Amino acid sequence: MTEDTHDRWALGDAYDAYMGRWSRLVAREFVDWLRTSPGEHWLEIGCGTGALTSTLCAHTDPASVVACDASASFVEHARTRVADPRASFVAAAADSLPSRPGGFDRIVSGLVLNFIPDPGAALAAMKDRVRSGGVVSGYVWDYLGGIEFLSQFWTEAVAADPGAAPLDEAQRFASWNLDHVASLFRGAGLAEVTVAPLTVRTAFASFDDYWAPFLGSTGPAPTYVATLSDEKRDALAERLRAALPRAADGRIVLHARALAARGFRPAQGPV
């Protein structure tokens, strides 16, 4: 992951509460969509707290998974959470990726490409490190209305504070649709590019279950909440409490969509 002035990703436990639980759900959908084979060597870019790493180990029977992230604290957090001996963790950004003699069989990036300043260059670097005929794949959240719990948050936050609008991921990543993702993969020199939407159910046990992760100061929306006075923060919570749909038992059931892509390194020459 990368950080800028409104994206604070340093706290692994806070991230798990905010997005990690949903990341694990979409990671499983993604792995099922990939159609993998056992015994492959993987490189994972932007491992975060290890949601995809653990899914790869549990459901693809890999020979190895080298998982890296630009955040050293996330790498340390993931290392403590994923005990599988086939997984190893490295602090590395997209411009300094690990390599493997002969190339990796698969290189994957989960929920990070849109946060990398030059995603096209990152994908080209991935293609350079995958073996001839190997697969580069990834997925990003569909922030343009595809993550309902965030859409609800920013609708109410911007209604109360129009100055917050530029922080809304739907504005920041407005161009990130399936066509854009496919174009990035093709532009990196990958062949037979395929894209697909992946949708998961995000169920909150109560309003407190929904709201508490926004108080964790990790991620764009929680970082914004941390800048508010107590009065404004409480007012925003009440706006959301009134706006969110709730079942008779108090649950808040919403959905989140990710955009997935995969492509092959053309079978030509050694890595």
Task: Describe the secondary-structure layout.
Layout: H1 12-34, E1 41-45, H2 51-59, E2 64-69, H3 72-81, E3 87-91, E4 104-110, H4 119-129, E5 130-141, H5 148-160, H6 169-172, H7 178-187, E6 191-204, H8 207-211, H9 220-226, H10 230-243, E7 252-264
Parallel strand pairs: 1-2, 1-4, 2-3, 4-5
Antiparallel strand pairs: 5-7, 6-7
Helix pairs in contact: 1-2, 5-10
Structural class: alpha/beta
Strand order of the largest sheet: 3-2-1-4-5-7-6
Q: Assign the CATH class.
A: Alpha Beta
The CATH topology is given as: Rossmann fold
Cα-to-Cα separation, first versus last residue: 25 Å
What is the gist of this entry?
This protein has 10 helices and 7 strands. The chain has 271 residues and is an alpha/beta fold.
Write a structural description.
This protein has helices at residues 12-34, 51-59, 72-81, 119-129, 148-160, 169-172, 178-187, 207-211, 220-226, 230-243; strands at residues 41-45, 64-69, 87-91, 104-110, 130-141, 191-204, 252-264. It is an alpha/beta fold. The protein has one domain: 3-Layer(aba) Sandwich (Rossmann fold), CATH 3.40.50.150. A seven-stranded mixed beta sheet has the order 3-2-1-4-5-7-6, sandwiched between helices. The chain is globular and about 60 Å long. It starts with 11 loop residues before the first helix and ends in a 7-residue tail after the last strand. Residues 1-10 have low confidence and may be disordered.
